[in-house]
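User: Can you recover a sequence for this backbone? Please restate the input before giving your answer.

Assistant: Of course. Working from this structure:
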């Protein structure tokens, strides 16, 4: 790790950025595989188990095992999206029609820059966070940039010059407004607790993780906030049962009805990228980030065991591995909910957002503000 930090700063940032993007894109690829395998298990099917790379499949036992797991299926899916014919309907607004898929993926790749995914203690005893851009306003940056993603849906629906895509775009904008407010209000009690009365007013995600390492996870301290944030996260990522902008049974395919091949693949990738980043933010806010258990941090384990579990390369690897396990768990939860619950009606989605989550998040914020003012003075 020390050799890495002897490189020029720009080169360090470039290497970390490439690694983070590679992991995120790889996560998107295999989230699709997880979607297909988990849905198959829920429905009593096998799922993809045929696609193989010949020279790997020829390896005795291991190659056949990997093939049956479907490990190579994402490569086939990606090749299909990349090389298949991509006709563009003549009635679309060409510039915005092509801009929308790109705009869908950009917010996810941008917000991941302020998501910390671990930390370690270097040889000088300094705590080094593993993050591309360590902003004190990290959570505010995530909310601001992620909300831009809805513009891709609106542009796709409007530029298609078709009835059903346009309705999907309108639904997306209404849904974003309905749940963005509740999501923002749900995290305010966390930062009130972390900063305390007369605190610095920091919105750093790293500070939230450190506070949970010293006390307990916010999942247990603020369960209502966790519930509201999780439900809003499903709605913000357009995941079932909140996939109103697509609504195949009502809108054919919604905002991406006119899209195919590579452009449809970009929308597909963007959905899973937002899902992964959203799972990462939930893990940071409510599950202690890269800390292994409630009330137990890698620092405490290193002290108890006299092993360098929080230092150097070992500390970085353990922190990142713990964080990835939590992200994978929530990705599976996203998939499980999709293949278990029926889709809500549009009026039910609006009612849940405005009549349930918004009042609940407001009451929760007021209760914690009063509690902090009374008991933490």
């Amino acid at each position: 790790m020390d050799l890495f930090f002897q490189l020029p700063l720009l080169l360090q940032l470039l290497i970390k950025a490439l690694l983070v993007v590679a992991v995120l894109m790889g996560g998107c690829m295999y989230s699709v595989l997880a979607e297909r395998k988990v849905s198959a298990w829920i429905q009593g099917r096998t799922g993809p188990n045929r696609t193989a790379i010949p020279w790997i499949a020829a390896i005795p036992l291991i190659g056949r095992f990997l093939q049956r797991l479907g490990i190579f299926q994402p490569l086939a899916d990606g090749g299909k999206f990349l090389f298949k014919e991509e006709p563009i309907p003549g009635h679309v607004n060409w510039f915005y029609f092509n801009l929308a898929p790109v705009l869908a993926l950009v917010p996810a790749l941008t917000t991941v820059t302020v998501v910390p995914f671990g930390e370690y203690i270097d040889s000088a005893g300094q705590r080094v966070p593993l993050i591309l851009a360590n902003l004190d306003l990290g959570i505010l940056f995530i909310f601001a940039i992620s909300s831009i993603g809805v513009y891709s849906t609106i542009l796709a629906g409007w530029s298609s010059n078709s009835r059903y895509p346009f309705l999907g775009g309108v639904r997306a904008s209404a849904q974003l407004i309905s749940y963005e407010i509740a999501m923002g209000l749900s995290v305010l009690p966390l930062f009130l607790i972390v900063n305390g009365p007369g605190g610095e007013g920091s919105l750093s995600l790293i500070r939230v993780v450190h506070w949970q390492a010293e006390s307990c996870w916010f999942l247990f301290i603020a369960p209502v906030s966790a519930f509201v944030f999780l439900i809003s996260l499903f709605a913000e990522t357009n995941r079932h049962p909140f996939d109103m902008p697509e609504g195949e049974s009502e809108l054919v395919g919604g905002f991406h009805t006119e899209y195919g091949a590579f452009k449809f693949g970009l929308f597909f990738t963007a959905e899973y990228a937002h899902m992964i980043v959203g799972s990462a933010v939930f893990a940071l806010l409510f599950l202690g980030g890269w800390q292994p258990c409630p009330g137990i941090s890698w620092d405490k384990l290193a002290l108890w065991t006299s092993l360098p579990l929080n230092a150097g390369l070992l500390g970085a690897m353990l922190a990142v591995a713990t964080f990835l396990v939590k992200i994978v768990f929530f990705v599976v939860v996203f998939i499980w909910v999709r293949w278990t619950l029926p889709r809500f009606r549009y009026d039910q989605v609006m009612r849940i957002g405005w009549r349930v989550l918004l009042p609940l998040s407001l009451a929760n914020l007021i209760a914690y503000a009063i509690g902090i003012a009374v008991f933490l003075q």
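That completes the design. The chain has one domain: 94-375.
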